[in-house]
Amino acid sequence: MFRRYTNKFLEIKNMKKIAIIPGDGIGKEVMKAAQYVLDYFDLNFDYNNALAGRECFYKTGSTIPDETLKIAKKSDAILFGAITSTPNQKSPIVTLRKELETYGNLRPIKSFKGVKSIYNDLDFLIVRENTEGLYSQDEEIIEEDEKVIAKKIITKKASKRICEFAFKQTIKESRKKVTAAHKSNVLKLTDGLFKKTFYEVAKDYPNIETEDYYVDATSLYIVTMPQIFDVIVTENLYGDILSDEAAGLVGGLGLTPSGNIGEKYGLFEPVHGSAPDIAGKHISNPIAILLSTSMMLSYLKYEYEAKLIEKACSEVLRKGNVLTPDLGGKAKTYEMADAVLCNIRELE
Ligand code: NAI
Ligand code: MG
């Protein structure tokens, strides 16, 4: 309680601006859960809502209007729900990550007690490069319906930046090993440059173990022996795929948070998308966005509140009596969010 009290003074002195971008589909549902828990802490943040996604496109003609980018750029941190992709339109989340230069995407993969999953002892981190690779959104029609090209851009600068970020995060989290995942046996220039840069950066971190695997083998090992991984650093598309795969080992996409970090901004979002198969039913699991909210609070130096959310989420999963259907329960999104809040109150 004392910590909460002292925080109040800090808050008034240094009010943080938070952009809230719920998106659409279950993005809007899980964002309500995040706001419910944030409201409880009464941190005196200056919240600004902004639109993105397919519904936003129908309303404004853009999947990511300039106004949204403006709000995001004026914020200390951004909390993002999820969007449904729109044919022939730019991905709003890829655009946001690039515009904000949040080049480092942290995707922790952790087992939770009580969650039925393939493994129950996992704790590793996927670090995904966020600004280039095959997600340059630079595609070209060579011949309509016959030949199209997507440009994969790999630069020394971005590869160095993401590898350094991964090594620094390894130290910060007291981890021991970094594995680079790439496909340099086939993509000799692009992935070759990524791999070469990884080992150049590694020289500055002699106390951290390093290794590299081709990304196809990495995806095998993630299933067959995930315990070997501590930190995986990889390119944009590979990080996207490997993190969904890894989420499947620890209880699914309803549980995996992420943080996109750059020099100026932090953008936090669940790993999952808008889940059209369950959207509107209010049964989406709010844990992924609540853990993303916890990552955001930690980024903003509200460690106490961040830890409380994390612990309360673990408690709800351990007790197992209020779970959404993806985890075998019958609870609604708001019931699970409420259970997290009750546990926060108990833990305080
Ligand atoms: P998805 O992540 O939305 O769903 C994959 C599966 O996981 C579905 O079975 C869904 O029901 C389940 N799931 C996801 N989140 C869940 C949650 N919180 N609770 C319970 N179950 C959950 O991926 P999908 O279906 O491939 O894509 C749907 C849409 O989302 C597409 O338009 C896609 O482009 C978009 N997308 C957006 C992302 C973002 O906003 N960052 C990321 C990934 C996909
Ligand atoms: Mg994805």
What does this structure look like?
- The chain is of the alpha/beta class and 348 residues long.
- It has helices at residues 2-13, 26-41, 54-60, 66-73, 92-99, 156-172, 190-202, 215-224, 236-247, 287-299, 303-319, 333-347, and strands at residues 17-23, 46-49, 77-82, 104-110, 123-129, 139-143, 147-150, 177-182, 209-214, 231-234, 257-261, 266-270.
- A ten-stranded mixed beta sheet has the order 2-1-3-12-11-4-5-10-8-9, sandwiched between helices.
- The site of magnesium ion (MG) has 2 residues, from helix 9.
Could you give the topology of this structure?
Blueprint: H1 2-13, E1 17-23, H2 26-41, E2 46-49, H3 54-60, H4 66-73, E3 77-82, H5 92-99, E4 104-110, E5 123-129, E6 139-143, E7 147-150, H6 156-172, E8 177-182, H7 190-202, E9 209-214, H8 215-224, E10 231-234, H9 236-247, E11 257-261, E12 266-270, H10 287-299, H11 303-319, H12 333-347
Parallel strand pairs: 1-2, 1-3, 3-12, 5-10, 8-9, 8-10
Antiparallel strand pairs: 4-5, 4-11, 6-7, 11-12
Helix pairs in contact: 2-10, 2-12, 6-7, 8-9, 10-11, 11-12
The structure holds 1,4-dihydronicotinamide adenine dinucleotide and magnesium ion.
